[in-house]
Specification:
homodimer, 214 residues, alpha+beta, Jelly Rolls, 2 domains, 4-stranded antiparallel beta sheet, globular, disordered N terminus, DNA-binding
DNA sequence: CGAATGGTTGATTGTGATCAATTCCCGTGG
DNA sequence: CCACGGGAATTGATCACAATCAACCATTCG
């Protein structure tokens, strides 16, 4: 269910996408706001809508029987998420930071929207496949490097702000927070990155990261 | 490019889907045959077509810089594969066994086919996400159990024939062949399965496997 | 029968998980 | 402004598990 924690919020990526661009698309509903760590919807909830992120960061995740959390993906402003093969959501969606999203009903989709959804689905597919490959090939350093390349993909500046906690990164990469921490330190030692603050990383050399990632 | 190794072949799953059912769909081209371990197309090749498996088994894979192979998915008769977000294939497709596939041009797709492709994409997405989750949560036993549940999903009988080699399983699960072998032995020890032959496994208890998998 | 391929089993090593302290950072209140 | 408190992050020591290296079996095919 949609827990409507109404809250005004700027968000890390707010400047990246104009509001007008985000609001004007077919089937759009009023913008909804969610506070940090609140739940947008849960695994098993009916999938009436998909969503587009306006500001902030959203994560989709699932829990295994033993209680371990697996983060499937992060969604930043401009990204859409929440469309499913079945009638219910396969993942829980949560607000990593305070965030704003536009829910959008699936029904009443026109030709062009159908086209758009299809290409979005293929993009998500490619991302999930890349994620699986990253997790399949062992190394903690490889995973970390891949993650850093991913989140800094569309950045021009060398400095990246991490909106998510270490635990989020760990659950996304299938590692522990300790290993995440150690691996970051290790990447700093080989001069691939520099740790400016806990959530502030300077990417010194993408080439080195690419090399480590494989 | 399409390496047309013409060859007549029965295939492990041939009986599962009728030929007529497979050939009659929009944009279908003549059936193509590929011999075991031959390449259907390579990563980077132009993606003019997607494919539907008639008989045999196909794998899609990618290679990391260090030469390690990652298998993305296996496709059995009835499955479609090879549609991409971009203009080129992101994976190499190879014949695990001798197999037959129907290539199908993307252009000229009607409304109903577009609908079909969309739902196929979402199914692939769900599968890739499940795969990522399996690889993310450590344990070799968990991965193996998940794999066994996957390949025996639509089987009524308890006995499963594995069409692929240990190396294929290893590359799919991000393990080594030795660990695959040991883990199978271990699953046998806890009476989840029985190893009848190298490629013949009896599933004794799905419940136990589910439990292990999590 | 013998070679070759694929699979299993054994011994050892390396890497990340786990358990356990600190330390760092940031917001709060004196 | 500084002291304090609490959650987040780092660092350290040890342990468990899968990779690696290596030898051995089984099955198929010439």
């Amino acid at each position: 269910m949609l827990t409507a924690d109404i809250q005004v919020q700027s968000g890390h990526f707010a400047a990246a996408v104009s509001r007008a661009q985000l609001v004007s698309f077919p089937g759009a509903q009023p913008v909804m706001h969610f506070s940090q760590d609140s739940t947008l919807y849960e695994e098993g909830d009916g999938a009436n809508c998909y969503y587009r992120v306006v500001s902030g960061l959203v994560r989709t995740c699932r829990f295994s029987q033993d209680g371990r959390r697996h983060i499937d993906a992060f969604y930043k402003p401009g990204d859409v998420f929440g469309f499913e093969p079945g009638a219910t959501h396969g993942f829980t969606a949560e607000a990593v930071t305070d965030c704003a999203v536009i829910p959008c009903h699936r029904r009443g989709a026109g030709e062009s929207e159908a086209q758009y959804l299809y290409s979005s689905a293929l993009e998500h597919l490619a991302r999930a496949q890349a994620h699986a490959q990253l997790l399949g090939r062992g190394g903690a350093a490889q995973r970390m490097a891949g993650f850093l390349l991913e989140i800094s993909a569309h950045k021009q500046a060398g400095v990246v702000e991490l909106p998510m906690a270490r635990q989020d990164i760990a659950d996304y990469l299938g590692l522990t927070i300790e290993t995440v921490s150690r691996t970051l330190a290790q990447l700093q030692r080989v001069h691939a990155i520099r740790l400016l603050a806990a959530r502030r990383i300077e990417i010194i050399s993408r080439a080195v990261l690419q090399n480590i990632c494989g």
